[in-house]
Amino acid sequence: MTLEIVPLRPVDKGLERALADAVDSGSLEPAVAYRLIEADIDTLPLLLEAARTIRERRSGRTVTYSRKVFLPLTNLCRDQCAYCTFVRRPSDPRAHTMTPEEVLAVAEAGRAAGCKEALFSLGDKPELRYASYRAWLAARGYARTIEYLRDMCALVLERTGLLPHANPGVMTEDDIALLRPVTASMGLMLETISERLLERGGAHRGCPDKVPAVRLETIEAAGRLRVPFTTGILIGIGETSHERVDSLYAIRALQDRYGHIQEVIVQNFRRKSDIRMRDWPEPTLLDMLRTLAVARLILGTTTAVQAPPNLMPDGYDLYLLAGLDDWGGVSPVTRDFINPERAWPHLRELKERTERLGFTLRERLAVYPEYVRQGDTFLDPAIREQVAGMVDAGGLVPPEKELW
């Protein structure tokens, strides 16, 4: 099945030439990107075609996903994002930090369901804000959350064989070095480079860890330490279309310098009843298609472009027309704790909707094939040895080991 979007009016010839040049050269000029991120329905067909061409060069007709189990290690955080439903205060009865026994039980359930990735998500440095949480850590012999996370990653890796992917928020180079021997990959969403959102009324007001320069420094530190890394942008939280473009160029600059960014997520804001932004307008499917296509053109073939299928359940397969080549982590065991109201699609459905548009769905690990092949550079020796026994010659999970 294919979908053709036919323009109603002739497309601007200058923009058409600029798109052709971008495809030929593998790079897109910012001035053109600013126009394309606001492309009307008449320009959309050419934009999508250009993005698909670049994607074909990178990954052909193969689209990947990771079968994961979601471990929300703690939902305490020192930040107060206006769109977040994950974070709780210690006084909230829903506040919770997982014990080692709980971590291991969920990881074991994931292993039994065929998962290969253990995604650790948690709030950012809650010990700096909450004395009760500092006491909880101290009673267990820890001064910082990152130290507890390190041991939980090691526990899961050693006892279940699942490959940890850690998202603990902003990290120093020392923090990243602490986690590197017990993780296959790490991540931190840039979200946006807009400092306006830190101002009164902005989505990042009261969030010291959402300062763009601080987040960029974490991503760069991971590059210096050669850690396979995930980042991305969150659209629809008050940023302008030009700021989306600038955020993508900031990511591309770090990828060009270090080569460690294995995937870039384009994630759409979704309203929730218990957030400050509960009446905020959500990005449309058209917003997502334009942003994904521009992301693909900016990033070229350097990295995977990903978007979560559960956040656009009625139209996510159309992302494939905009240059997407990865669905991210999908769990058959645990919900999406960041967007709990949005269930993951069943893996059989994901496979069918991917194949309906002429693509092959393949399972990958928390570390992408390119980084498996460069394991001497990007993986700790113990992780590298374990990864080698989990993949085929192409660096993906062998088809006979995939469970549908």
Give a verbal description of the structure:
Helix content is 38%, strand content 14%. It is α/β, with parallel strands linked by helices and 404 residues long. The chain has a single domain (57-390), classed as TIM Barrel (Alpha-Beta Barrel). Strands 1, 2, 3, 4, 5, 6, 7, 8 and 9 form a nine-stranded parallel beta sheet that branches. α4 packs parallel to α6, α8 packs parallel to α9 (241-258) and α9 packs parallel to α10 (285-299). The radius of gyration is 20 Å and the shape is globular.
Salient structural properties:
single chain, 404 residues, alpha/beta, TIM Barrel, 9-stranded parallel beta sheet, 14 helices, 38% helix
What is this structure, in a nutshell?
The chain has 404 residues and is an alpha/beta fold.
How would you summarize the topology of this molecule?
Blueprint: H1 13-25, H2 30-36, H3 44-59, E1 62-74, H4 100-112, E2 117-122, H5 131-139, H6 145-160, E3 163-167, H7 173-179, E4 185-187, H8 212-224, E5 229-235, H9 241-258, E6 261-268, H10 285-299, E7 304-306, E8 326-330, H11 347-356, E9 360-364, H12 369-373, H13 375-378, H14 381-388
Parallel strand pairs: 1-2, 1-8, 1-9, 2-3, 3-4, 4-5, 5-6, 6-7
Order of helices and strands: HHHEHEHHEHEHEHEHEEHEHHH
CATH superfamily: Aldolase class I
Poorly predicted runs: none
* Alpha-carbon distance between the two ends: 22 Å
Query: Tally the helices: what do you get?
Result: 14
Note the overall shape. globular
Assigned CATH architecture: Alpha-Beta Barrel
CATH class: Alpha Beta
The secondary structure category is: alpha/beta
How many discrete structural domains? Answer: 1
Helix content: 25-40%
